[in-house]
């Protein structure tokens, strides 16, 4: 009997062990166990067993659990464990890896908690679950038999609300000791939208299953130092009591605020239960500087459920201050605030002006009644200038409640736009809204009026009035009221027709909507953190215009615009991948560009949208040539990659009194924001260039003042790379300031962002002559050589010569082409004189020469300028020669020799080139001027010199009389001013 019972017990145990082994040691058993668990627990559990079993290595994928309150997801779980020791029982965890973990709640728009990857490894001593750390037996257990494990993660996200979240890109925590009183230390990084990036280190903290005591948590937020101490409890309710102190905090590291260096101390207490939430933030200390202005802050903020209380909240920066005091609750509200900013530049960089305001919020949070009075005086910021702005608000957040908003602006300037007065008024009476805008400028007026009401979260109404009256084009008016519908994410209007003296333009229909997309259920937390928000897009546009003269209003350099434009497009897809269907056509068009003297005719363009591709073709006639443009844009690719070809033959691109130029472009443009590449060839087959004489200019009257806003030029967002070869044909004629000839050659021009425009190639002038000072010179050789350096500084290889007959007598040479050979004292020889110019355009170098050699440098220059030898030069000839010499960069010895000879001929004791700053009353500014200085010592005490301006037309006569050794009297008379000065000189060794 006993043996039978024992056999039965052993059989039952064997069956149980077999079942246990099946479920815990086989992959199929693990799958069945998951299905049984799904049946037994509330909610829905799903998981795919990739490999492994319960006791040992386990690998699960696509884990999903859902009930009425929570949804939990994970893409991958790898779990490995075994029993390391039996007394005490120690469970080893070689590795636990969890990927793409998300916890969602039904009311949240984003996951409440999640991370891209987390890992856990270490060991767990089961006796630690009930044993206290101060137990004597605990001290005798070796470290190898105690609980200790490491937790690490990547891309953890904790959203506080839909618009604010905290992320922890990486972190690692080490736990040690009994679970009833463990010690923890480690490091992690915090970041997030509107949350400062910082490195944190837990130096000392202890905890258990219910709470954690933080003795020292240090970090480096906002380029400063921070210390957090306190206690956080999560069972049975979440509550905390913590102190946060910070030193050398700079809020500009994360938020658009002035550079700051502040010390702060915040005491925070909070309680979160299922029925209530209470938070208290006490600003105990806020001191430091912001943009070198002292900063100070005090006050308390109490939040209880939906009740907000501000207790004497005061923030000061320099002389600016904000004061708030009062309460905001769902049932009642009574908050008063005052704002005083005497110098706006203290808070907003590059801004000017002052702000004074006050306001209140009364009523309740559900229906707040807002009153505000704000005045801004002498405001200036980013090119916007206004003498005074007055804003008055008396209304409610709901557009169907009685409200009144008035904004008045006096003397507004922005760019080239000047507005003397601007009025914006929004009124709501009996659930009817009216928006009115009136702008009045010195030469234009603008009026706008719309009426409507809010119905089911949509504003529905009409644009009743839209008028733009400009002195140069007359009035542009709305033909008839246009229906308008607005929502938080969309707008639509139809029809919208503008009538002006130049014709009518109509938008038959336009509607656009941008909404938040439906997030895929399998979206990973890492993608949610890193991927930019994509939004669905829908819309339609129908537009037609039978007169395009209005284009001249926006581009004054274009005139006589004719043609018709029709467009019909439907837009769908998303903001990242838009889908465009439809087409637009420009027909029977022509225009003129008076500045270039050209007319474009037979202009036609066709734009077609097909899903994610946009193609376009255009052509126009330039003179007798035809321009063709073909291109395509891929809307599906990031940056909207575009490829454009531009081709044409014998296009008349300039036809003025200065130039007549024909061009044949063959260019390829590749655009992938922000990169634009331009490659190809531009051939100029013929041109006639005859620039007007620019040596005489007309100056503006003295009462003309240039006003230029002191604005910082923003860096160009488009990066341009170009490689274009410019080829000059054989029919390029040039005639300017005595230089006449043909230009030929080719130059390859290259551009790179941040660098100079460079050139490679050679330009030559052939069949050229040059006439100066009444003399004709032949250009034997003229080349501009580009070697890959800056295109505005090519190398020079120019040789100008003059052929003449030199008659030699017993007294010296002279030029005489009609010398009588019958006279025995005369002999005539063919002589060539010239000048070689080399170096670069910025640093040219000149050398005088003669063929055959033998003439002096003075004679060569005199022959070139006057046609006579130096010995026969008149006073006027000498002045012309010295003036020309000042423009030549001859070698020192040659220049000095020539200068001394002709200075002596004129009886001058001083001749030089000076560079100095002079006041130009015509320009009302100080200018850099280069002058030719001529001087003569009339006696040992009296010196007279005359300065002739070579760059600016400023001439000065200076007389210096030396009274004694250290005392002199100086008188100056110029085209700008007259003056007398007395100088006393002290010399020291």
Q: How are the SSEs ordered, and which strands pair?
A:
Elements: H1 2-25, H2 27-40, E1 44-52, E2 57-66, E3 71-86, E4 89-104, E5 113-125, H3 136-139, E6 148-161, E7 164-176, E8 182-190, E9 198-207, E10 211-219, E11 225-233, E12 238-249, E13 260-272, E14 277-290, E15 293-304, E16 307-317, E17 320-328, E18 333-341, E19 352-363, E20 368-381, E21 384-396, E22 403-414, E23 417-429, E24 432-440, E25 444-455, E26 458-470, E27 474-478, E28 482-486, E29 490-494, E30 496-500, E31 503-515, H4 525-530, E32 536-545, H5 551-554, E33 559-573, E34 578-593, E35 598-610, E36 613-622, E37 625-634, E38 641-648, E39 651-655, E40 659-672, E41 675-689, E42 719-736, E43 739-751, E44 758-772, E45 775-790, E46 795-809, E47 812-815, E48 827-839, E49 844-851, H6 857-866, H7 875-887, H8 892-906, E50 910-920, E51 925-937, E52 942-949, E53 956-962, E54 967-974, E55 978-984
Parallel strand pairs: 41-42
Antiparallel strand pairs: 1-2, 2-3, 3-4, 4-5, 5-6, 6-7, 7-8, 8-9, 9-10, 10-11, 11-12, 12-13, 13-14, 14-15, 15-16, 16-17, 17-18, 18-19, 19-20, 20-21, 21-22, 22-23, 23-24, 24-25, 25-26, 26-27, 26-28, 27-30, 28-29, 29-31, 30-31, 31-32, 32-33, 33-34, 34-35, 35-36, 36-37, 37-38, 38-40, 39-40, ...
Helix pairs in contact: 1-2, 6-7, 7-8
Biggest sheet: strands, sense, closure?
A: 6 strands, antiparallel, barrel
Q: How big is the Rg?
A: 43 Å
By DSSP (H or I, 4+ residues per run), the number of helices equals 8
Alpha-carbon distance between the termini?
Answer: 134 Å
Shape descriptor: elongated
Class computed from helices, strands and strand pairing: mainly beta
Side by side, the strands of the main sheet go 26-27-30-31-29-28
Number of separate strands: 55
Please state roughly what percent of the residues sit in beta strands, choosing from under 5%, 5-15%, 15-25%, 25-35%, 35-45% or over 45%: over 45%
**Mean pLDDT, nearest integer?**
78
* Fraction of residues in H or I helices: under 10%
Q: Unreliable runs, pLDDT <50, ≥5 residues? A: 132-139, 516-533, 694-716, 817-824
Oligomeric description of these chains: single chain
């Amino acid at each position: 009997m006993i043996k039978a019972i024992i056999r039965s017990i052993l059989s039952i145990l064997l069956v149980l062990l077999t079942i246990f082994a099946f479920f815990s040691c086989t992959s199929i058993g693990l799958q069945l166990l998951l299905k049984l668990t799904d049946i037994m627990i509330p909610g829905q559990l799903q998981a795919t067993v990739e490999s492994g079993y319960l006791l040992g290595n386990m690998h699960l994928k696509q884990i999903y659990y859902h009930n009425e309150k929570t949804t939990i997801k994970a893409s991958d779980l790898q779990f490995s464990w075994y029993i390391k020791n039996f007394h005490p029982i120690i469970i080893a965890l070689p590795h636990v890896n969890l990927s793409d973990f998300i916890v969602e709640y039904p009311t949240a728009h984003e996951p409440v908690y999640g991370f891209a990857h987390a890992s856990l490894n270490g060991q767990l001593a089961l006796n630690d679950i009930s044993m206290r750390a101060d137990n004597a037996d605990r001290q005798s257990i070796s470290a190898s038999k105690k609980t200790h494990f490491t937790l690490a993660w990547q891309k953890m996200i904790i959203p506080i609300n839909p618009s604010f979240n905290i992320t922890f890109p990486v972190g690692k925590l080490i736990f040690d000791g009994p679970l009833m009183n463990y010690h923890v230390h480690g490091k992690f990084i915090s970041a997030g939208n509107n949350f400062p990036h910082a490195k944190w280190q837990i130096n000392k903290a202890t905890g258990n299953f219910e709470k954690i005591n933080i003795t020292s948590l240090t970090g480096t937020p906002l380029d400063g130092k921070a210390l957090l101490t306190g206690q956080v409890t999560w069972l049975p309710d979440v509550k905390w009591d913590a102190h946060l102190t910070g030193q050398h905090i700079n809020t500009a590291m994360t938020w658009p605020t002035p550079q700051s260096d502040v010390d702060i101390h915040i005491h925070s207490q909070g309680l979160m239960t299922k029925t209530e939430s209470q938070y208290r933030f006490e600003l105990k200390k806020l001191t430091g500087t912001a943009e070198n202005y002292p900063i100070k802050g005090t006050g308390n903020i109490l939040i209880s459920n939906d009740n907000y209380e501000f207790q004497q909240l005061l923030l000061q920066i320099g002389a600016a201050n904000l004061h708030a005091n009062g309460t905001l609750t769902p049932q009642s509200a009574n908050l008063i605030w005052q704002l005083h900013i005497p110098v706006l530049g203290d808070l907003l960089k590059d801004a000017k002006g002052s702000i004074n305001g006050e306001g209140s919020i009364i009523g309740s949070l559900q229906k707040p009644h807002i009153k505000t009075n704000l005045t801004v005086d002498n405001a200036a910021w980013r090119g916007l200038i206004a003498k005074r702005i007055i804003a008055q608000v008396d209304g409610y957040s709901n557009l169907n409640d009685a409200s009144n908003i008035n904004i008045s602006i006096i003397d507004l300037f922005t760019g080239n736009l000047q507005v003397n007065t601007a009025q914006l008024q929004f009124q709501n009476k009996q659930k009817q809204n009216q928006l009115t805008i009136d702008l009045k400028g010195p030469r234009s007026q603008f009026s706008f009026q719309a009426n409507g009401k809010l119905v089911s979260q949509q504003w529905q109404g009409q644009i009743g009035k839209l008028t733009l009256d400009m002195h140069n084009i007359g009035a542009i008016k709305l033909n008839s009221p246009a229906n308008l519908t607005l929502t938080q994410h969309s707008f639509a209007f139809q029809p919208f027709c503008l009538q002006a003296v130049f014709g009518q333009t109509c938008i038959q229909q336009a509607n656009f909507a941008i909404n938040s997309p439906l997030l895929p259920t399998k979206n990973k937390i890492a993608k949610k953190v890193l991927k930019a928000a994509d939004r669905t897009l829908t819309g339609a546009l129908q537009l037609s215009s039978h007169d395009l003269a209005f284009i001249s209003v926006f581009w004054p350099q274009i005139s006589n615009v004719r043609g018709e434009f029709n467009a019909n497009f439907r837009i769908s897809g998303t903001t990242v991948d838009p889908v465009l269907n439809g087409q637009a056509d420009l027909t029977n068009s022509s225009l003129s560009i008076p500045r270039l003297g050209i007319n474009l005719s037979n202009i036609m363009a066709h734009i077609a949208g097909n899903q994610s591709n946009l193609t376009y073709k255009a052509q126009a006639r330039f003179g007798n040539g035809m321009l063709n443009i073909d291109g395509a844009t891929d809307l599906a690719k990031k940056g909207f990659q575009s490829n454009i070809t531009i081709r044409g033959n014998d296009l008349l691109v300039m036809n003025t009194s200065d130039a007549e130029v024909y061009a044949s472009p063959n260019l390829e443009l590749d655009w992938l924001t922000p990169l634009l590449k331009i490659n190809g060839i531009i051939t100029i087959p013929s041109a006639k260039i005859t620039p007007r004489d620019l040596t005489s200019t007309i100056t503006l009257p003295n009462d003309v003042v240039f006003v230029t806003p002191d604005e910082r030029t923003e860096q160009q967002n488009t990066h341009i790379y170009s490689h274009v070869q410019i080829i000059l044909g054989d029919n390029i004629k040039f005639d300017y300031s005595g230089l006449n000839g043909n230009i030929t050659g080719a130059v390859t021009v290259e551009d790179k962002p941040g660098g100079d425009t460079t050139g490679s190639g050679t330009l030559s002038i052939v069949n050229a002559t040059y006439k100066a000072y009444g003399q004709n010179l032949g250009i034997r050789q003229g080349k501009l050589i580009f070697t890959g350096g800056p295109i505005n500084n090519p190398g020079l290889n120019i040789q100008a010569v003059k052929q003449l007959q030199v008659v030699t007598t017993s007294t010296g040479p002279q030029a005489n082409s009609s010398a009588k050979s019958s006279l025995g004292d005369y002999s005539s020889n063919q002589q060539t004189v010239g000048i070689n110019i080399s170096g670069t355009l910025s640093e040219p170098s000149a050398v005088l020469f003669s063929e055959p050699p033998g003439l002096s440098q003075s004679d060569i220059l005199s022959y070139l300028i006057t046609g006579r030898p130096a010995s026969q030069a008149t006073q006027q000839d000498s002045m012309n020669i010295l003036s020309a010499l000042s423009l030549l960069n001859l070698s020192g010895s040659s220049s000095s020799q020539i200068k001394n000879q002709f200075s002596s001929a004129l009886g001058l004791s001083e001749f030089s080139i000076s560079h100095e700053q002079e006041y130009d009353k015509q320009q009302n500014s100080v200018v850099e001027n280069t002058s030719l200085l001529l001087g003569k010592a009339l006696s040992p005490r009296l010196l007279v010199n005359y300065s002739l301006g070579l760059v600016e037309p400023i001439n000065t006569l200076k007389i210096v009389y030396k009274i004694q050794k250290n005392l002199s009297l100086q008188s100056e008379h110029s085209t700008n001013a007259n003056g007398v000065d007395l100088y006393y000189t002290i010399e020291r060794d």
